[in-house]
Design a protein that fits this description.
Layout (H helix, E strand, L loop, with lengths): L7 E2 L2 E2 L6 E5 L11 H10 L3 E3 L1 E4 L5 E3 L22 E5 L2 E5 L7 H4 L27 H9 L6 E6 L2 H6 L4 H9 L8 E5 L2 H9 L5 E6 L6 H7 L6 H4 L2 H8 L4 E5 L4 E3 L6 E3 L2 H8 L2 E7 L22 H9 L5 E4 L2 H9 L2
Parallel strand pairs: 3-4, 3-16, 4-9, 5-9, 9-10, 10-11, 11-12, 12-15, 15-16
Antiparallel strand pairs: 1-2, 5-6, 7-8, 13-14
Helix pairs in contact: 5-6, 11-12
């Protein structure tokens, strides 16, 4: 459970227990992500927590989608009544064309059906396309409340600066949604933008706060404020940057490439010192995303030539977990649990 997160002692952190296994958008390796089936299967497979991605509708309803652009995860492109909603926008500096949640009411989005986001890699999951509707945050809260054991939520707030510009302040909307909720396991809130984490904390939401970091680039909220002078993600991961983060958040969550990667193309995997340095600063450390398919594994751990086939995922998962991580995000939570048991 989320109670396994390390407890701070002064400026250091106690030794961690085996890492939390967080079901990334549910059991998204087996069912289309962010569906009831994916969430309930993750619970059945034993995940410690579930991670939803949270975006907003035009009328301020929080819904669970990987991105606010939904053409790759729903049947919206096949719905003639919504053909006129297709548009082009710039979201966090990226120009995108498609259909966006903020252009729909919840009543409209509730008529759509979910689809597998990675059909070329997860063909088996496409059998479940168009079966399940989009869910709201409150629907997942109800699923967790009904679970047969305590299961945590690691809530990711997506594109807060973009939504604020649309008149949809995600910090306010999220705080209002979880007000009065008493989860059976501790709540974790994460985002690629510290400002929204601070806004949620200031609204009295009791949670642990985790800052997400990419391999490159800079946080969207800092870019909006400082432009080219915005501190990069890499700048946050220096020793001085980690010390600053420890004054604002409880942990960080980073791409697996920042934890371990091949020393050379196709060569052996080597681990970085990031986990050790972050722990020394008093921060918990998570990584995303553990996936078993060859497409997502270092070259030396791939088996065969098909991108969709499983490679030597056990070695990869155990290598990452062996760095002392406090939590891992996995599309196949059962495989991550198997790797954790083998440590």
């Amino acid at each position: 459970m989320l109670g396994r997160l390390p407890r701070r002692v002064g400026a250091v952190i106690e030794p961690t227990r085996p890492p939390l296994v967080v079901a990334h958008r549910g059991a998204s390796g087996y069912r289309p992500e962010h569906t009831r089936a994916a969430y309930e299967l993750a619970i059945a497979l034993g995940a410690d927590a579930i991670e939803p991605d949270i975006v907003a509708t035009r009328d301020g309803v929080l819904v669970l989608r990987h991105e606010n652009e939904i053409s790759g995860t729903t049947d919206v492109a096949d719905r003639p009544e919504f053909a006129g909603r297709r548009t082009t926008k710039t979201v966090d500096g990226e120009r995108l064309t498609g259909w966006f949640t903020e252009d729909f009411t919840w009543a409209e989005l509730s008529t759509l059906r979910a689809r597998e986001r990675l059909p070329a890699v997860r063909q088996a999951s496409t059998r479940f396309d168009d079966r399940y509707p989009i869910l709201r945050l409150r629907d997942l809260m109800a699923i967790l409340d009904a679970a047969p054991r305590p299961v945590g939520m690691v809530a990711e707030i997506k594109h807060a600066t973009h939504f604020a510009a649309q008149g949809l302040p995600l910090d306010e909307l999220f705080a209002a949604e979880v007000a009065g909720w008493s989860p059976a396991a501790p709540l974790v809130v994460e985002a690629f933008e510290q400002s929204v984490l601070g806004g949620i904390r200031e609204r009295g939401v009791r949670a642990r706060y985790v800052f997400l970091l990419e391999k490159s680039g800079s946080p969207a909220d800092l870019v909006a404020r400082f432009g080219a002078a915005a501190l990069s993600y890499a700048g946050h991961l220096t020793n001085a940057g980690l010390a600053r983060l420890a004054r604002a958040v409880d942990g960080i969550s980073v791409d697996t490439a920042l934890i371990a990667r091949p020393a050379t193309r196709g060569g052996p995997v080597v681990v970085s010192d990031l986990v050790e340095r972050a722990h020394a600063a008093g921060l918990s450390v998570f990584t995303w995303t553990l996936r078993p398919e060859n497409r997502f594994l270092p070259g030396a751990l791939r088996v065969g030539s098909r991108a969709a086939d499983h490679g030597d995922w056990m070695t990869w998962f155990r290598t990452l977990m062996g760095t002392g991580l406090d939590g891992v995000f996995a599309d196949h939570p059962d495989l991550a649990l198997e790797a954790r048991a083998a440590l």
